[in-house]
Specification:
Structural class: little secondary structure
Bound molecules: zinc ion
Low-confidence stretches: none
Strand order of the largest sheet: 1-2
Order of helices and strands: HEE
Distance between the termini: 27 Å
Helix content: 10-25%
Shape: elongated
Number of helices: 1
Mean pLDDT: 79
Number of strands: 2
Amino acid sequence: MSEVSNQSTGYCPDPDSWPAVAAALDRAGVARPGGFTHALVFRRCARCLQDNVVREGVFVCVFCDAGLPHAWNVDPGHS
Ligand SMILES: [Zn+2]
């Protein structure tokens, strides 16, 4: 494995969660890069509950234009 994307893994961790992902890969003996190669920032809109991909640091819901929280709030267990 030469690339790890938090999009392709099927869940939505914050890019800040990379150390946990890296540790899991190390335990599994999987070769890994130094970080997410295609890091995406996910936020769930508090108004319309849609999951957004934050692009270029703009924390605005693309669905309803509500502001998105700057803290990660996408729980993969309840998506
Ligand atoms: Zn919204």
